[in-house]
Design goal:
The complex is a heterodimer.
Chain A lengths: L4 H16 L8 H23 L4 H15 L3 H16 L5 H26 L3 H9 L4 H31 L11 H12 L2 H28 L5
Helix pairs in contact in A: 1-8, 2-3, 2-5, 3-5, 4-5, 5-7, 6-7, 7-9, 8-9
Chain B lengths: L14 H33 L5 H14 L4 H11 L6 H9 L2 H27 L3 H9 L4 H31 L11 H12 L2 H29 L14
Helix pairs in contact in B: 1-5, 1-8, 2-5, 3-5, 5-7, 6-7, 7-9, 8-9
Classes of the chains: A mainly alpha, B mainly alpha.
Chain lengths: ~220, ~240
């Protein structure tokens, strides 16, 4: 009754087009996930540091940003971008741009909280010692606090990267051809939902599970500080 | 931006009714899935500690496989993939009784059950073993040590991460729109389709989610403050 052949026949489309994004569609899970992780983390550092600022005019907007995006489903944010970006820019934006913007803006709120917690986990004495040695506030942050904070953040950062990697499947609801959409396209022709969705579940699982194994190895390694 | 706002679309016509229906469906879906998730979380958490290897392995497989695959894939799997394998009668019954709601509830509950399991496990593991040893050394029986020391600490430790995870579940219920469960995001889209007023419709949906999440977070964090043991648990992070 089950037909594993459907995977073999469509393997190239699912993996090369859907997962890697090489082919006639502008798509790909990896092509979306990697920039989204890098840019989301970069914006997250800005948001996290802004939340710790002394000046209220920097801190309050950052707090509002984080609370807003953490209180709304990602699906909602994707629809916002889908409708609002073309309105604002007055030109049609491809699904890739819409999805990437939505992920970066949404995940930056979560990355920001991780950065904030990481910075706060560095003992206050470290900053005081750095300042006493004559480093400016920015230099103390750059050379003393952030390197230690980053090490403390690794476990929750990897967890969030895994969440983001899984979330990229939601780009398929606005028509972006990622692994999930590729499986839908094949399913429309072959009508083999059980085999196809189980197969992509395994592909996603291999990626996320190896990410979490790598994180565990990193954690166990003695810190070199 | 030359967009003409027309907020009245939200209370004229059927919009208000749709939003209310969507809200009710979201709450029903989330509540049922939450019960399933907590039950599965406790069950798999307990099974991972039993001294019988196959049961432990099954529980570990459940947690590691289900929480590491996107919820959207599970939605498609349970809605499109599984029903064709069921006996004809069960299939007919399901599709007569809102199959998309039950598939969505099942996907959401099974996915979050695996995540809940990890939350509960790490909460219990974070209680120092010395608490138990100290209570026994002071003459409490095992039962008393659990009832008077371990459980009161465990419940307080577990409430914040469980709240967080429950809010994730509530927000993730929006993914059920992909299998056309008429929940809040689905209804927001419906208003957009009927009125061509995207920004107004999305604002309404977004505000409802925000109010739901912020008020649940607020209630739980005031409970947490009220029952905090001074000096034992430092409050980490804000509401959310």
């Amino acid at each position: 009754m089950l037909d594993p052949g459907v995977i073999v026949r469509n393997f190239k489309f699912l993996i090369v087009q859907g997962f890697l994004g090489i082919g006639s569609f502008a798509g790909g899970t990896l092509r979306l996930a990697i920039p989204a992780i890098v840019l989301g983390f970069a914006l997250g550092i800005v948001v996290g540091l802004a939340r710790l600022a002394n000046a209220a005019w920097i801190r309050v907007p950052a707090v509002m940003y984080v609370e807003l995006f953490r209180g709304v489903p990602l699906v909602m944010v994707i629809f916002w971008m889908w409708f609002v970006i073309p309105q604002l820019l007055r030109l049609p934006i491809p699904e890739y741009g819409v999805a990437l913007t939505a992920f970066v803006i949404f995940e930056a709120a979560y990355f920001g909280e991780i950065v904030r917690a990481g910075v706060q986990s560095v003992p206050r004495g470290q900053v005081e010692a750095a300042r006493a040695l004559g480093l400016s506030g920015a230099k103390a942050m750059r050379y003393v606090v952030l390197p230690q904070a980053l090490r403390n953040m690794v476990p929750s950062l990897v967890t969030q990267m895994i969440v983001l990697f899984k979330d990229t499947s939601l780009a398929s609801i606005i028509g972006y051809v990622d692994l999930t959409k590729a499986a839908q396209i094949v399913n429309n022709r072959e009508i083999r939902p059980f085999e196809l969705y189980l197969f992509i579940a395994v592909v996603y699982w291999i990626c996320t599970y190896s990410m979490s194994r790598m994180a565990r190895r990193l954690e166990r390694r003695p810190s070199t500080a | 931006m030359s967009y003409q706002f027309k907020w009245s679309v939200l209370w004229s016509g059927q919009s208000g009714y749709w939003l209310l229906q969507g809200l009710i469906t979201t709450l029903e879906l989330s509540a049922l899935a939450w019960l399933l998730a907590v039950a599965l979380g406790i069950l798999s958490g307990a099974l991972r500690t039993v001294p019988f290897r196959p049961l432990r392995a099954a529980a570990t497989f459940y947690v590691e496989f289900f929480r590491n695959v996107p919820l959207l894939v599970w939605m498609f799997f349970w809605y499109f993939g599984v029903p064709p394998l069921l006996p004809r009668g069960v299939q007919d019954w399901l599709f007569d009784h809102g199959a998309e709601f039950w598939a969505g509830m099942f996907a959401l509950g099974v996915y979050h059950g695996a995540r809940m399991s990890e939350v509960i496990r790490s909460g219990i593991q974070s209680i120092p073993r010395t608490q138990f040893e100290a209570s026994v050394a002071m003459g409490l029986s095992v039962w008393q040590a659990y009832r008077l020391v371990i459980l009161p600490i465990a419940l307080r430790l577990i409430v914040p991460p469980i709240t967080n995870e429950s809010l994730n579940l509530l927000k993730n219920s929006s993914v059920a729109l992909t299998i056309s469960v008429a929940e809040l995001t689905f209804q927001t889209r419906q208003i957009e389709t009927y009125t061509a007023r995207a920004i107004e419709a999305l604002t309404a949906g977004t505000l409802i989610y925000l109010v739901l999440c912020v008020s649940i977070a607020w209630v739980m964090s005031s409970l947490e403050r009220r029952y905090a043991i001074p000096g034992l648990i430092a409050r980490v992070g804000g509401a959310g």
